[in-house]
Amino acid sequence: MMGKAIALVLSIYCNYYYLSSAQAEEKITPVAASPPTLGVESVGGGKNRDEVYERLPQEQIFGAEIQYFRMRGGPGRNMPRSHVLELWGKALDAAKDAGMNMVSFYIPWDFHEYAEGQFDFDGTADDDGDGQPDYPARDVKTFIKMVAERGFKHIMVRPGPYINAEWGHLGFGAIPLWFDAKYKNSHMRNADGLPTKLVDYHNPDLLRHTKIWFKAVYDQVMASHMDLIHFVQVDNETNYLWQSIYNHDYGVPAMARYRNFLRQIYGELSAVNSHHQRQWKDWGEIQAPRQAGLNFNEDQDWYRFHDDEIHRYLRIVRGFWEGLGVKEPQVLFTLAESYNVSEKGLLPNYRLRNDPQVGLLTVNLYPKTSESDNQAFLNNPFKADHDVMAQETASEQYLGRGHHWVMGPETQAGWWKGTDISPAARQQTYLTVLGHGMKAMLVYYFNEGDNFDAEWPRQHIQPGYEMIKSRPEYQNLAMDQLPKLFWTELQKLTDQSLFEHNFYFGYNVKDEMIRAPEDAWKLYFDAPLDRDGNRRPHFEVLQSIGQKLIKPHGDWLRHSVSLNDSVCLLKDVREHGPSKVKGIDSDKLNAEWAGGLVGYALNTGINMKIIHWGIQSVDEMAGCRILFHQDNGNTAPDLAQALNKMARAGMVVVNLLGDSLAQKVGLPVTGREVSGKSNVYVTTLQAASGAAVSTPIPNSDFTVPGSPVFNYQWPEKAKRCLPVLQSPGRDPSVARLVTGYRCQLGRGLFYQVGVLFYDFYNGNDYSDREDAAPRAEFLRSLLRQEKIVPQLQVAGSHQRIVAFGRQGANDPRLWITVKSGERTPTDFRLKVEQVDPKKKYVVSDLLREQEQVVSGAELQTKGFAGSLEGLGSTVYFLSPAGE
Fold first, then answer.
1. How far apart are CA 759 and CA 769, in angstroms?
2. How far is residue 30's CA from residue 52's CA, in Å, rounded to a whole number?
3. What SS3 state is found at 655?
4. Which of 259, 299, 300, 609 has a CA 20 to 30 Å removed from the CA of 844?
5. Mutual angle of helices 296-323 and 269-276, in 10-degree steps
6. Among candidates 729, 746, 735, 745, which has minimal Cα distance to 711?
7. Whole-angstrom Cα distance, residue 115 to residue 176?
8. Helix (H, G, I), strand (E, B) or coil at 510
9. Which residue, among 393, 572, 395, 629, has the nearest Cα to 17 in the 3D structure?
């Protein structure tokens, strides 16, 4: 009886996480238990979603985030209005010259509501009483008029309440100073009870003032420009500052909500105690985990609680807009997220963040954020590929079955000092997102300028600094000579004492004190435009794309679809949560490693399709002849059942790393162990020939440094199973250990691979590793086995030259993006399968404005000739000659 009760609880739990809930701001409404649906019903399609999709812009959007509030002419007050308008004009003219048709911008709350209930949207407020307007740059009304006058077709407004943007006294904007001063207990608390920089998303005062703020923005700014404002962003990067979920939120209100969350899932306290292995005597006793890895089931619930907190908050924020009459399909509501987090953070949930009652998830992309020893071209060379591909199919959750539309409100246009983003790196990123189907690409930051209230942290740290500095041992030392002990004590004093004076945990006091005041005020990003609106040399990359790609081909590109092969990557948001398998980090597995798998496939000639369990239909999954799944040890029973059925019907399922899926489909190989933390394994791939004994594939050896590596104890009598990855040179006593195997399941095959052999494709070493060819042999052997011919394939033995394409509906033309990870120039030939061998085709290099005519037969057998500079990229457009 207890087993059935626990099963019922877990069923309700899974349904709650999948479907979420309609919840009001005051209290949470329980969700009725119902089976998770996998068909059209789960997507929210229907007539109203079709109308939203049909009202989307019918052209390719190419735009920029232009932050009018930064272009103030300087950090101080009373700057000449004429200079502000000049700066705005330069930025808008540059965007127009680049061929852009859309402008996006934040509207910072703290900048415009300078005192409680006092708003300035026309730049006339004189709060200091000196007879001059404080900030003419507050005149967002005129800025919008200037956007309209230049013929831009679309505007997206981003009024927060959070905007991040490295803005404001908290450094991530834009909660007003007056709000912090008035509501000192509004902030989240860390595990030690100290207030953090973040205001509690569900704080009643925050929500009440947000509603007032939105009304002011709508009435005074937006209402008269709704003919241009086609997108409204709901908050910004709502993810606890990319921090660990064990940093937030342990405040009293949040703990009450956590207990209510558990009550909804489990119903009875006894069920919580059973699942968490606790002995709580009352709901009020329940405490949240403060350290990861001590209680897996509690970690899972804590993770999902954070997902739910964000989801409910975003629904409330959207509701404020709808209460003002801002509704779809008049506008499209969007959410902005980066699909990456720091350790133990929270990845965006593709289902909850694409909830039709919240907004369409968009893609913020920053594939290079640091320098490496080898001066990596990009830190994550296939992040853009993965993130756009994943959201393209996930957008069906919001728009309805078969409807795909991806926006990128922040496509990397630079980075902070010390990190070089070359023109070639920028171009690869832009061409990649367009080539994978981003229908609205906006670059960020497009312009630099000045921050706001940037001196606030230093002012609050300064008293403690001076107190400790007055000691004899420090009096005569310059700031850069102060020892580590000094900064440690100042950090502790700041974190644990000054919070009583309205300061917050999370500032690095040494960084705040050492950096020059002008660096705090000035935003430098190596953006296309500097703080004076002048164009940097790499602005030409954007201009070339706008004039040579978007302007002549934008209409075709907007209606194109991805040219996918019948190989898929399956993702399930339930596997975002913590893993109980040692060596697997779920955040890395779903983000960086998944990007590596996409890069691995592209380097083998395969343009995968990403399938989301619970968003795409089972029928669509069945169209995948080879399906990859990364296993973090938490494969759900319903997913395992479906994959087992598909494999037995003829699919090839490749399960990577953890083996929870293999266990659930009943494979006979057991005794897995984790090994290889710092060792190096030489792994030989075995032929997938179907012979009784597998044989080595020549030249398929490569090394895999470090973990995770998983070994499987091979049974003496494993019928219908063969090892496919082994480690030669092992001690004979462990000869039965393999790192990968294959089993026949009905008419299909199931592969279990326990070695992470694909992660480097999405890492700093991508351009320098020399063993890409033997690694690719595993997938090539599967393609030969299944007789799959890639749609696009680089001929010969080239490494790190990849191609992916788009096609029109009932249209023989193809858009092919080619990019190189090689540091030296490369000549290549690209074979194209989807052409008529009897016709001739014009192959146009759009960026270099070169053409060649090639027969369809030659395209299929030899390919067309191409060339790229080192780390170069371009777009080829194929069209039948004479048509």
1. 12
2. 29
3. strand
4. 609
5. 130
6. 735
7. 8
8. helix
9. 572
Name residues whose C-beta falls within 8 Å of residue 250's C-beta, 6 or more positions apart in sequence: 188, 189, 190, 191, 193, 288, 290
What sign does the CA torsion over 655, 658, 664, 668 have? positive
Considering the domain architecture, whether residues 843 and 725 belong to the same structural domain is answered as no
Number of CB atoms found within 10 A of residue 384's CB: 29
Q: Is the distance from CB of 520 to CB of 451 less than 8 angstroms?
A: yes
The answer to whether residues 235 and 162 touch, using CB atoms and an 8 Å cutoff, is yes
- Tokens matching residue 637: 């029973």
Write down the pLDDT at residue 698: 66
Cα–Cα dist 341/333, whole Å: 23
- Please give the tally of structural domains in the chain: 4
- Report the alpha-carbon distance of residue 757 to residue 734 in Å, rounded: 22
How many helices (H) and strands (E) the chain has is answered by: 26, 35
Q: Mark whether 540 and 586 lie in a shared domain.
A: no
Q: How far is CA 162 from CA 6, 144, 529, in A?
A: 40, 21, 25
Residue 167 and residue 87 share a domain: yes
Q: Tell how far CA 142 is from the center of its chain.
A: 34
Burial of residue 607 (CB within 10 Å: 0-12, 13-18, 19+) is buried
Tokens 């998983």 found at: 710
8 Å CB contact between 611 and 389: no
Find, among 856, 718, 872, 241, the residue nearest to 864 by Cα. Answer: 856
3-state secondary structure of 528: coil
**For position 218, which CATH number holds?**
3.20.20.80
pLDDT average per 10 residues of sequence, the chain (883 residues): 36 37 31 28 54 94 98 94 98 98 98 98 97 97 98 98 92 90 92 90 98 98 98 96 92 97 96 97 97 95 97 98 97 95 92 96 97 91 98 96 96 95 97 98 98 89 92 95 95 71 76 88 95 97 98 96 97 95 92 97 97 94 96 96 96 95 85 47 47 55 72 70 66 57 92 91 92 86 94 89 94 97 96 97 98 98 97 98 86
Q: Tokens 């000035």 sit at which residue?
A: 522
User: Is 202 part of any domain?
Assistant: yes
Say what angle helices 456-469 and 484-496 make with each other, to 10 degrees. Answer: 120
pTM (global) more than 0.90: yes
What is the domain extent for residue 465? 456-521
For 413, the 3-state DSSP assignment is coil
Residue in 811, 813, 872 with CA at minimum distance from that of residue 847: 872
Three-class SS of 123-163: CCCCCCCCCCCCCHHHCHHHHHHHHHHCCCCEEEEECCCCC
